[in-house]
Design brief:
This protein has 412 residues and is α/β, with parallel strands linked by helices. It has helices at residues 26-38, 55-66, 83-92, 107-112, 120-136, 154-167, 183-197, 212-225, 248-257, 276-287, 308-316, 351-360, 368-385, 391-399, 401-407, and strands spanning 5-10, 43-47, 74-80, 98-104, 141-147, 171-176, 201-205, 230-234, 266-267. It folds into 2 domains: 5-282, TIM Barrel; 351-407.
Length: 412
């Protein structure tokens, strides 16, 4: 029986926001972090420390971590595995505690991406120097990413991972960057990697061939069977480049209920699926991408039965046609839609209507002066998002106005 655990590292705010034609405002990224924390996710890869327009948002979210709003979730940055990027990251975000450093390892990318600027030995040297430099800044945890690991020759991948461990890495991220692996190949490769290197393995899989959930959990099984912890990378609603990443809710459901995993492999006990419905709906709103009707757990049809045989069976005993309960995902409560008069807080709102919006949320201001301070922030948030703020966003701004101000501020 496996004693090690599967942990979730969500990368919505790093990989998910790289989805072509889409993106998130910094306030929306912050809300995603808050909801991931409520859901018990181990770590959020919350952004790019070397990117200037992320600086205020990253530092503000670390402030939220310090005061307990974003706790116990880890907030990790993503950079290239170069000394230069490490230096820039810590100059912009000096209180960063968790970091993933990434570099390509496959022959395809070493030859055709680096174009002769770096060979295999150079890749290892560059990564090792970056890891050591990050350690010199007092970083708490370091993950080393082997980009395109699934197309990397095994002997080189092993040498790379062992060098990362010796330099001070805490985890190796096995990146199935193009969704090239299948559940059988990734299991064998990750098991061999974990057994020989003896470090926890992160599984970062893409959905180019439609197998992303299967490869993610199969890779995790390989790590666990080798005797180390597994960390599965996810995004909310499977957002991500090209065909997307592993969907957060689907991965959790697969680990909890699939044959061969149920009661055999252990998921981080902090995971709270009752927040699944809330975070999926919010991400759909924030990205402006509808949840597919057949999305596991959170799709409109996930618990819908039409045919006579299925409806009859579900009514007799839900387990006839449902593996898990909708209540577990935070579903089942009726949703009230206002059809009468609505006062909405927007970029052109006045103080009277604005106070009415907050009073409906049972938040009252001492006077118009206090209300106007929050109103100004809400106006800026509307400009940044270009869509109305939801209740949780309005409450966040009212509760943490100074931090919200930093999140909404970008300096060129």
């Amino acid at each position: 029986m496996a004693k090690n655990k599967i942990y979730i590292i969500d990368v919505t705010n790093r990989d998910g926001v790289q989805t072509a034609r889409l993106g998130l405002a910094k306030l929306e990224k912050t809300m995603i972090n808050i909801f991931l924390n409520e859901m018990g996710v181990f770590q959020s890869e919350f952004g790019f420390p070397v990117t200037s327009h992320e600086t205020n948002y990253l530092n503000a979210n670390l402030e939220l971590a310090k005061i307990g709003v974003l706790s116990p979730i880890h907030l990790s940055g993503w950079i290239r595995a170069t000394v230069k990027d490490v230096k820039i990251a810590f100059s912009k975000v000096p209180k960063l505690k968790h970091l993933n450093l990434s570099i390509s390892t496959s022959d395809q990318m070493i030859v055709h991406k680096f174009n002769g600027k770096m060979d295999h030995e150079g890749v290892i040297k560059e990564m090792v120097e970056a890891v050591k430099k990050a350690r010199s800044y007092g970083i708490e945890t370091i993950g080393v990413n082997a980009e395109d690991a699934s197309r990397t020759k095994m002997d080189f991948l092993l040498r790379f991972a062992k060098a990362a461990k010796q330099a001070g890495a805490d985890r190796i991220r096995y990146c199935d960057t193009l969704g090239y692996d299948n559940p059988f190949t990734i299991y064998e490769r990750v098991k061999k990697l974990a057994k020989e290197v003896r470090l926890p393995i992160e599984l970062h899989c893409h959905n180019d061939l439609g197998m992303v959930i299967a490869t993610s959990i199969s890779g995790a099984k390989g790590a666990l069977d080798a005797g180390v912890d597994a960390y599965i990378n996810t995004t909310v609603n499977g957002m991500g480049e090209r065909a997307g990443n592993a969907d957060l809710v689907s991965v959790i459901l697969a680990v909890k209920y699939s044959s061969g995993f149920h009661n055999k492999y252990h998921l981080d006990e902090r995971i709270n699926l009752s927040k699944a419905w809330k975070i999926a709906k919010y991400a759909s709103y924030a990205f402006d991408v509808p949840i597919p009707i057949n999305q596991p757990g959170v799709g409109a049809n996930a618990f819908a039965h039409s045919s006579g045989i299925h409806a009859d069976g579900a009514l007799k005993d839900r387990r006839n046609y449902e593996l898990y309960d909708f209540e577990e995902l935070g579903r089942g409560e009726p949703e009230v839609i206002e059809t009468g008069r609505q006062i909405v807080a927007g970029e052109y709102s006045g103080v009277r209507g604005f106070r009415n919006v907050y009073e409906k949320m049972e938040i009252k201001f001492k006077n118009d002066q206090d209300a106007r301070k929050i109103l100004e922030l809400v106006r800026y948030a509307n400009v940044a998002k270009q869509k109305p703020l939801v209740e949780d966003e309005l409450k966040f701004i009212a509760c943490h106005p100074k931090i919200a101000s930093k999140i909404l501020t970008m300096n060129p």
